[in-house]
Every structure is written in C-alpha cells, then in structure tokens.
Amino acid sequence: MNAYLVCVLVLAAGTYVFRLAGPVLHGRVELPARVQELLTVGATVLLVALLTTGAFTEGQEFAGWSRPAGVLVGGVLAWRRAPFAVVVVGAAGATALLRLAGLS
Amino acid sequence: MRSSDRTDDPVERTSSGGLVRFSELPPGVLRDIALVLVADAVVGVSFGAISVAGGLPLWVPIAMSLLVYAGSAQFSAVALLTGGGGPVAAAATGLLLNSRTAAFSLAVADSLGRTWPARLVGAHLITDETAAFVIAQPDARSRKAAFWISGIGLFAVWNVSVCAGALAGSALGDTGRFGLDAAFPAVLLALVLPALRDDGNARRAGALGAVIALAATPVLPAGAPVLLALAGLVAIRRKSPDHPERPGSSS
C-alpha cells in the first residue's frame, strides 16, 4: 500500500481520536467546576505557548527578529483594542517592512 | 448568500431544535472570523503550493487537508515527507503536534451541541482557531454560534485554498516576504487577550507555560514544547470565595 496514503490515514485517524475526547466524554462524566476551570485555563495556556513559540521559533531555531517584532506590534494594537483587521495588517506589515529593510 | 446555505446545514441543528444563527454572535465577531478566514486562505494556498513544489503528488495535500485538517501538523508532516524523514516520522510528529487538540476538545465540548451527529461532525472542526474563538465568547449561545460558524467557514476555506495552492504549484514565490508568518501568532494573541485581561490565573499560567515552551523548543521534538507548557498550570492560585480574583471584570 502507498506509504503516503498510510501516513495520511494514520495521522487522520489519530487526530480524530484526539478530537473526539471532549465530545465523547461530555455529558457522561460530570466534571467538577474546578476541573472545568482548569481546562479553560489550560486551553489558554496552550494557545499562549503556541503563539510564543510561533513568534520566536522556526523549527528548532530562532526565527529572526522581524517576526516577533511584528507580533509585538500586533499585540500592542490588540491591547489598545484596535480592530482585528488592524492587528493582522499591523503585524504582517511591520514584519514585511523590517524584512524589506534587511532584518532577518 | 453565505447565510442561506450555512443556516440550513443539518449539522448546525442542536438538541433544542434550534439552529445556530449569525445574529447570536456579538457584533464584530463575524468580522473577526472573516479576517481569520482570509488569513487561513493565504496559509492554505501556501501549504498546497509547498507540498506540490516539494514533489508530493497532488492528492496528498488535498487528502491531508480534508482528513487530517490541522495546519501545523500538515506543514510538519509535509516537511518530513519531502525532506526525506519518511512517512512514519511524518505521522508521529503530526500526531504529537495534534495531541493538544484533545485538551481543546475537552475545553470546547460544551459548545458543539448535544446530538451525536453534532458531536461527531463538530469534533473534526476543532482547531486552534475555533477553540480560541469559543473561549473568547461571553456566554453559551454565542460560544456555540462562534464554534459552528468559524468551524464550517474555516473547513471550507482551508480545503478550497489548499486545492488552489496545490494546482497553482510553485508559481507563488516566497510568502515570507509578506510577513504573514507574523500574522498568525498575532491573531492568536488578539484572540487570547480577553481571557488574559480578565483572569490573573490565565496570565500567570500562560506566562510560565510560554517560558517553558520556548526553553524546550531547541531540545524537544516539534509539538512537545507546547504540551509541556501545561506545566504552567502550577502557577494557578486557588480562588477563595471571599477574595474574588477578578475585580469587576465580567465583560
């Protein structure tokens, strides 16, 4: 059997099992409020870790300064409650300009 | 025109017989979702193009996007497949990266609806972005609307754009030039900011988790550092009922 196909199917099946965890368990086990709260904070922690590693690293290497600088611009705009579009354009624009200026 | 085919979709039906409606989202959220859709479309096009340019058959990125449907895992799997890492390493890395969706799925399970078709279809739509949109909503109705509207929109846009990118091949050039790699962390940051603003525990745990993930990135395989960030949860302080943690911040 085609190795690519096996890879795609194994990855797809495993990912779907991860995704089913919540919907299958929901309503069967009554989670204590404390655990619910921990899950919500846990999801936020995962997202913060994801965006931080995404901002600073590419693979296992440092991504260069332009990207985290752009993310920082986006973060400041978001903190000042700028519209979402401004956040995205600000982040991408700052990074693109820094690269144009020769920063990695 | 989009609203007509979306709201008739049977998967949006809920146990109470109601449908998810655009009007159930707070103003501005639809615009935010639309913007993430545009950003995801650009990433999808580049995923399709990179895969085909790297020598994979056309069907691989397309099947992967439909069946796996997880951006970061797809990118890393394709990097390993085209870089000679082999299909076993590609699948293993992808699974490690996607194991975090189990935590997201537990966190958003409430918002899928109670019927089994809704749970089984909804499960496939759980991504970083849908989880972030759900967490950002203030109440159960808008969380559910945010889940289904962003989930179906992202799935459609992602698959169409990956197809387009795969067909266009390598004609697009270097997408890094447009700074789009900074747009995604910024999008996630904008989405978690409300939770960070309101909740001191989320701030403390998030900061510690981010430091842990960053320190672990050079030494651990892709996907593991983000999971390790959950150790940041030790920074949570128990809220005593007479000393509420959130000083008047329910908005």
List the helices and strands and how they pair.
The complex is a heterodimer of chains A (104) and B (251).
Chain A: H1 3-25, H2 33-56, E1 57-58, E2 61-62, H3 66-79, H4 84-100
Antiparallel strand pairs in A: 1-2
Helix pairs in contact in A: 3-4
Chain B: H1 2-7, H2 29-53, H3 59-67, H4 71-82, H5 87-98, H6 100-108, H7 116-124, H8 128-136, H9 140-168, H10 180-198, H11 200-216, H12 224-228
Helix pairs in contact in B: 2-4, 2-9, 2-10, 3-9, 4-5, 6-8, 8-9, 8-10, 10-11
| Biggest β-sheet strands, sense, barrel of chain A | 2 strands, antiparallel
Radius of gyration based on Cα positions of chain A: 20 Å
- Per DSSP E runs of 2 or more residues, the count of β-strands of chain B stands at 0
Q: Look at the structure and give the mean pLDDT of chain B.
A: 83
Mean pLDDT of chain A: 89
Using only C-alpha atoms, the radius of gyration of chain B works out to: 19 Å
The residue fraction in helices of chain B comes out at 55-70%
Oligomer: heterodimer
Structural class of chain A: mainly alpha
Low-confidence stretches of chain B: 1-17, 241-251
In whole angstroms, the N-to-C terminal distance of chain A is 43 Å
Shape of chain B: globular
String of helices and strands of chain B = HHHHHHHHHHHH
Membrane topology (chain B): Multi-pass membrane protein
Family (chain B): Belongs to the AzlC family.
Keywords (chain B): Cell membrane, Membrane, Transmembrane, Transmembrane helix, Transport
Transmembrane segments (chain B): 33-60, 66-97, 145-172, 178-196, 208-236
Structural features, described:
The complex is a heterodimer of chains A (104) and B (251). Chain A has 104 residues and is mainly alpha-helical. Chain A is built from 4 helices and 2 strands; from the N terminus they run ααββαα. Chain A has a domain at 1-30. Chain A has a two-stranded antiparallel ribbon. In chain A, a hairpin with a 2-residue loop joins β1 (57-58) and β2. The longest helix of chain A is centred in the middle third of the chain and has 24 residues, at 33-56. Chain B is mainly α. Chain B is built from 12 helices and no strands. Chain B is 64% helix and 0% strand. Chain B has helices spanning 2-7, 29-53, 59-67, 71-82, 87-98, 100-108, 116-124, 128-136, 140-168, 180-198, 200-216, 224-228. Chain B has 2 domains: 2-193, no CATH class; 199-251, no CATH class. At the A-B interface, α1, α2, β1, α3 and α4 of A face α2, α3, α4, α5 and α6 of B. Chain A: The chain crosses the membrane at residues 38-57, 82-101.
